[in-house]
Specification:
globular; alpha/beta; CbbQ/NirQ/NorQ/GpvN; Cobaltochelatase CobS; ATP binding; two-stranded antiparallel ribbon
Length: 335
């Protein structure tokens, strides 16, 4: 079934039955998936508050912004909700190279009856707005502020998309939905962590109907996710190791919040560490290759102390600037 031929959702689903959340909310959905519906991840763990906000976006056409630290699964959360609703979903990464022409459209040369003619080609926004698409503006605060004004009116519930270049006004499809993810909620790179993000116009941020924060999971839930992603660790010894990994990750997050470090371990990093440990049996070497080498060397002593708290052994003995055996030349017996 072609997405552009689909109408409004044809069924309703019970939130309590589908997502295991104590809510009487019923959400419209499609009975048949299309090529634009994300694949279902059966092991995905939903955050109840964030899930309800996203579901409200789908059921009541509310513009929903999900903000939080990197690695918390903001974009994936929206996609997995859409997957279970069979709702077509399109994700656009708003890097600094996305221009107004990319979003709105531009004149292109096409062949008509053997002749080259100029024809306007719709950009990502007009294409999405006129279809039953859940459009996700990923890394919303990384988009150029001047470009983001293109969607200003579209953020309103009954907003329309005006294409001034073609004197067209597009009315959104009844099943069009708009979501976004951001690290800073448009406040810019205040902490120096998210280079490339911008301070966005507050009048535009104010147009988002729902803003929800996706934080890191509780340790036991995070450990459960790691074990589901790396099932070879689902043994008594492996579970103990993963618990230590998650404990260390939480210590790095606390150190970051206190200003002691400029880097933290996200859940994604913990999963990669567990996966890399399968390749490198020395847990210290796997940790160094997964995370430590991404950090400023001046902060290595801090991570060494945090590692020692969780694993009761030294991660590094001397500063990497002076100890060749800690610079990656050893075989993993000393990390």
């Amino acid at each position: 079934m072609e997405t552009e031929m689909m109408g409004i959702p044809d069924i309703e689903v019970c939130v309590r039955d589908m997502f295991g959340i104590d809510s009487d909310l019923r959400v419209p959905a499609y009975s048949t998936p299309t090529e634009f519906v994300p694949d279902i991840d059966p092991k995905y763990v939903f955050n109840p508050e964030v899930t309800l906000a996203i579901l409200a976006g789908f059921s009541h056409n509310r513009r929903t912004l999900v903000q939080g630290m990197h690695g918390t699964g903001k974009s994936t959360h929206i996609e997995q909700v859409a997957a279970r609703l069979n709702w077509p979903c399109l994700r656009i990464n708003l890097d600094g190279h996305i221009s107004r022409l990319d979003l709105v459209g531009k004149d292109t040369l096409v062949l008509r009856d053997g002749k080259q003619v100029t024809e306007f080609q719709d950009g990502l926004l007009p294409w999405s707005v006129t279809r039953p698409i859940a459009l996700v503006l990923d890394e919303y605060d990384a988009g150029r502020p001047d470009v983001m004004f293109v969607i200003q009116r579209l953020l309103e519930k009954e907003g329309k998309l005006t294409l001034s270049d073609k004197n067209r006004v597009l009315t959104p499809h009844a099943a069009f939905r708009l979501f976004a993810t951001a690290n800073t909620v448009g406040l810019g790179n205040l902490q120096g962590l998210y280079h490339g993000t911008h301070a966005l116009n507050h009048a535009q941020i104010d147009r988002w109907n729902l803003v929800v924060t996706l934080n890191y999971l509780a340790p036991e839930r995070e450990a459960a996710i790691v074990l589901s992603r790396v099932p070879t660790k689902n043994t008594e010894q492996g579970q103990r190791l993963v618990s230590q990994m998650v404990a260390l990750a939480n210590l790095t997050r606390r150190a970051f919040a206190n200003g002691d470090t400029s880097t933290l371990m996200s859940p994604r990093t913990v999963i990669m560490w567990a996966e890399n440990h399968q390749l490198f049996p020395d847990v210290r070497l796997a940790f160094r290759l997964t995370f430590l080498n991404k950090c400023d060397e001046s902060e290595w002593p801090v991570f060494n102390e945090l590692y020692q708290r969780c694993f009761d052994e030294e991660l590094i003995v001397q500063s990497p600037l002076f100890d060749s055996q800690s610079s990656g030349t050893d075989t993993g017996t000393r990390a």
